[in-house]
Amino acid sequence: KIKTHKESKVSQLMHVDEVFSAVSLLYVSPLKSNLENDYVKKTFNADDLAFCDEILCKVSRSFA
């Protein structure tokens, strides 16, 4: 088993700039998907986009 480094919750919350960034991304101005954009719909295959979006959602959590 590989050892991983973990910080305590208090230590994480002491990084005020990171907490502010996380709160603003989650609640103030969340990121929006551009898959519904007309340009994207016309340029790319819908099945390919759906596949990529599905896979990205699965693997992106492993990097969080």
Word description of this protein:
The protein is an all-alpha fold and 64 residues long. It contains four helices and no strands. The longest helix is centred in the C-terminal third of the chain and has 15 residues, at 46-60.
Helix/strand class: mainly alpha
How does the overall form come out from the CA principal axes?
A: flat
Considering DSSP H and I runs of 4 or more, what fraction of the residues is helical?
55-70%
Largest sheet, in brief, is: none
- Overall pLDDT, averaged? 85
Distance between termini?
A: 19 Å
Number of helices: 4
The number of strands is: 0
The unreliable regions are: none
Radius of gyration computed on alpha carbons: 17 Å
**Order of SSEs, N→C?**
HHHH
Q: How much strand content do the residues show?
A: under 5%
Write a brief structural summary.
By secondary structure, this protein is mainly α. It has helices at residues 9-13, 16-28, 38-43, 46-60.
